[in-house]
Amino acid sequence: MSKDWPLWEVFVRAKGGMAHRHVGSVHAPDAGIALRHARDTYTRRMEGVSLWVVPSAQITASDPAEDAAMFDPAMDKIYRHPTFYDIPDDVKHI
Amino acid sequence: MYTTEFQKSRDRKVAAIEDPAKLAAFEARVAADEFIEPKDWMPEAYRRTLTRQISQHAHSEIVGMLPEGNWISRAPSLRRKAILLAKVQDEAGHGLYLYSAAETLGTSRDEMIEALHSGKAKYSTIFNYPTLTWADIGAIGWLVDGAAIMNQVPLQRTSYGPYARAMVRVCKEESFHQRQGYEIMMVMAAGTADQKRMAQDALNRWWWPSLMMFGPPDEMSPNTAQSMRWRIKRETNDELRQKFVDITVPQAEALGLTVPDPALSWNEARGHYDFGEIDWEEFHAVVRGEGPVAKERMKARRAAWEEGAWVREAAAAYAEKQAAREAA
């Protein structure tokens, strides 16, 4: 039984002006082959103009079990949103 | 291309020892149509059922390349050859999307491939039938991919995020598969008497196995209720099978071909076609590995894996050498 090649996460830029977006992953022994596998697997129909591959092991992710503590502080800072402020209707362009 | 859930559930005991509060929160999220992502807490039985379903689905895509790959070198024109090559390459891609999705549940690619090659893992029964003539390539695209689409469209809303996203990609690509198959059937059905006979013969042989692709009838499918509750499955086997028959029969009529089922008739009251009894003995025999070309398929898979070993080894050795050179 052989060992799996390392896993790489694949990101595709659909066209100029757009951000790279995560589309999936591939196994590959090195970055060059990861790029080729990513091209063959995720861009067979002109889905992109640029590819990134990143070793999956290099990604640090937040823990979903901790998401309340991680993301909740924003909830009590509603003054960060424009709708928090009452401005009379006859005041324009604001 | 398609999956059927084969194994019987042995998950009841595990469910009992799960943390009831976590289980309740999980069930509520799924019931609210939220997606479950890889690092989220999930019941072991959910993880196991999904791993089995997604890996069987992946295996089906990979084995599904064999009956069609068989015809690439004998395609009747360069156009047909290029199309068939692209389709078979898509099937490989679909297998890879699905293996990646299954891996997020904690089973390695290597373990899954080993399970396929050892015969422990199942794949769709449809691929254990032989492709005897070029018309079979038409019938597979039209019927087998058609049945696959019917099954996969609802899976785009399945509860497990990576599986749902893989299904979105697969469904986008699958429509080409079905249309190229139907086009082959159109050409043959409108061709010489011999060609029309071949098209009818292919329909005769692929019709019933295609209906079996939806899996056993609902009353014989013990996992359906649980899978529906967990949104792993969104419609029952019989519902999907009926939908498939309803849309496919008019397509056969448009070709001027006859569906090989004397019991087939439009039921005005139900608003659906009634159709004949499926030979479930045959289905179960094929699941057990007694399909006409089951042994040949696995032999071809294992040979491809073993004969490609030197390429994998060379790529790994090259990567190692490059890394060592960079470190120096």
Explain what this protein looks like in three dimensions.
The complex is a heterodimer of chains A (94) and B (328). Chain A is 18% helix and 22% strand. With 94 residues, chain A is α+β, with helices and mostly antiparallel strands. Chain A has a domain at 2-61: Ubiquitin-like (UB roll) (Roll). Chain A has a three-stranded antiparallel β-sheet with strand order 2-1-3. Chain A is elongated, with a radius of gyration of 21 Å. The N and C termini of chain A lie far apart (66 Å). By secondary structure, chain B is mainly α. Helix content of chain B is 66%, strand content 2%. Chain B has a two-stranded antiparallel ribbon with strand order 1-2. Chains A and B meet through strand 2 and helix 1 of A and helix 5, helix 6, helix 8 and helix 14 of B.
Features:
heterodimer; A: alpha+beta; Ubiquitin-like (UB roll); three-stranded antiparallel beta sheet; elongated; B: about 325 residues; mainly alpha; 14 helices; disordered N terminus
